[in-house]
Each structure stands twice: as C-alpha cells, then as structure tokens.
Amino acid sequence: MSELKIWVDADACPKPVKEILFRAAARVKVLTTLVANQPLAIPKSPYIRALQVGSGFDVADNLIVQEVEPGDVVITADIPLAAEVVEKGAVALNPRGERYTSENIRQRLQMRDFMEEMRSAGQVSGGPPPYGQTERQAFANALDRLLATRIKRKNA
After folding, report:
1. Which is one Pfam family of this protein (predicted)?
2. pTM for the complete prediction?
C-alpha cells in the first residue's frame, strides 16, 4: 500500500471540517490536499497543501478522481464523486462523519437523484440541516477511527 493521503473536495467543505483535518494532518503526519476552484487559506505545514483548479463543472472532482489511489481518504459531500473514489478503492467520508461504501453508495445516488427531481418539481425546498457541533463531533470521531485503522494497517 502506498503512503496514505487525504484528499478534500474543499469548495463546499465546512470550515470546522478543514480545521479538524489540519490538526489531524499534523498529528498523524499525513499529506492532506485541499482541491478547490478558489484560493484557500491553509496553515503552513509540510502535510497540508492546496490545489486551485480552474472554474467549471466538476473540475475539482475530476482532479481528485484522477489522483486518488486505493486506500486514500476523500472528504466530500458530493455523492457522485464519492461513488467514483469508492470504485477506485479509496475511502469516502462526508463532513457529517458518514462513510460511503460500495454497499451504500448506490442507494445514496438514487436518493440524491430522487431529491433532485422533487426539488425540480417544487415539491421539496432547502438542503441539508445546518452544520453544528453534533455533526462536527461525528466527523472528528469518524476521521479518528478511520486514520487509526489505516495507520495500524500500514504499520502491521
């Protein structure tokens, strides 16, 4: 297995998630790359980098899919991106601490498409509930578990 890397779909990533990732990158010394189509402020660290891509539909997602390797971790709320990285053998985790897997991704894609149809028809409005302390804690716990498992596997 190659060196573990974390990729972040950073355009819509909540600030608290980025802060958790910055601390985790330094703590476990894992390269964490934030990919966005806008400039990002990141702390000075050998373990954190930002890649700015051109604007356009799915440009950041496409770069992540191109660069991700089996065993890497991808942080994203974008379900189609999660499906692609899971297919490549990477782990996808959303900012609310939910892990996308080969077992649940098809259902997530179907629900996403259904909700998109409902919004288009005016049946549903709004998006996900606000991001708060509960979601932040769930993400931090899920990331810690995931990194502990990956690091243990690497050292075995």
Report:
1. DUF188
2. 0.85
